[in-house]
Design goal:
Layout: E1 4-9, E2 31-38, E3 41-47, E4 53-59, H1 62-72, E5 81-82, H2 90-99
Antiparallel strand pairs: 1-2, 1-5, 2-3, 3-4
Amino acid sequence: MSIQNYVAAVDRLDSPECDYSVAGTPPLPGVVLLEVRGSDDAVSYRYTTAGHGVGEVWYPGEEEARGAIAAEFAGCLGAWELVPSGEADPHDYAVCVARGVRGAGRREA
């Protein structure tokens, strides 16, 4: 089974178009990592710009995941991008995206 990882920055939470409303916020996520494990298995992970996990959700497939995430972050979610195959850890890469920094090994503890 091949796992595909995608990231999308959550970068417009303060814009008028953003309708992000999840009970219990903050801390606010800065990025969403979508791990597609197969045709019927996907998990999203949310991270703050400080690298803290702020939730994960299982979905019955990629299409359902993308639809639910788009609805959750209406007007706030950037474009999805494939995590480069050379990245050792997609979670670290996602945090780098949240911070606006690309490249392996750039996450600070």
